[in-house]
Amino acid sequence: MTSLDKTAPTATSTVLLTGTSTGIGYASALAAAQAGWTVIATMRDLSRADALRTAAADAELPLDIRALDVTDPAAVDRVIAETVDHYGRLDAVVNNAGSASVGTVETMSIDEFRFAMEVNFFGVVQVTRAAMPHLRAVGGRVVTISSVGGVVGQPFNESYCAAKFAVEGFCESLHPVAKSVGVGVHLIEPGAVSSEFVTNAGFDPTAMIASAGVYSAPLTAYLQRTMSQFAGSSAQTPEDVARIVVDTLESADAPFRSQTSDWAREFVAPKLADLDGSRVTTATASWVSQPDG
Prior knowledge:
Layout (H helix, E strand, L loop, with lengths): L13 E4 L5 H12 L3 E6 L6 H9 L4 E5 L5 H15 L4 E4 L14 H29 L2 E5 L12 H23 L3 E6 L15 H6 L5 H16 L6 H13 L6 E3 L2 H11 L5 H8 L8
Parallel strand pairs: 1-2, 1-4, 2-3, 4-5, 5-6, 6-7
Helix pairs in contact: 1-8, 3-4, 4-5
């Protein structure tokens, strides 16, 4: 029986997750360990590992926490190889490392666009590429955290959505090829999640609006809407998403694409039936318009 047929991890099932210092990655590492997986929890900066170490210790969950910058190909190859050497196998990877970015093409540099692609897209490709030979050996799985922003392009998110669109195209194209050699490929599409992801983007809304020039009014409208989404009732917790990550790792019939809430499903549904693009662009235009009066 291959891992594609399994409904629960074996005693030796090993999963490597990226971006586990906060948010979805943090919650997913703990949830996978609680479910019985051997977890290698990676993050770019180990100085931010204390919270995860403490949570794992409090729950008496063994975690192997390692440094990994997904934009460093040599580091990715090394950590994957060390994992297999140490544990004897790799059953799954969860591509979660990512970076938020807010701005438009005239206010962002090309280097900022390239950085968004390096972290959010090429990091996924590099980890998946390094893991594939080992996943083929055991019939494993690649689970990638995308976003509803990988389906619906969103104002002032050109770089982030471009990277997530690329992730969606990469995974959708890889899915049948990987399946032919026994490897499952799956996408998770969260909506707004109450976590440090937006905070970690490191932008100052007041300063951003002040320097936005002709874009200051639409940017103000966008930021007001977005902040209300992340603070509102539609926002999920990282733990909500982590449960779907673990289900995707373990379910015998896990779908290729999973939205993580009813809100997320309703958000992406018009795009999937929007042949000429007008429904999406009409809706998103309202996000950057000032109310009358």
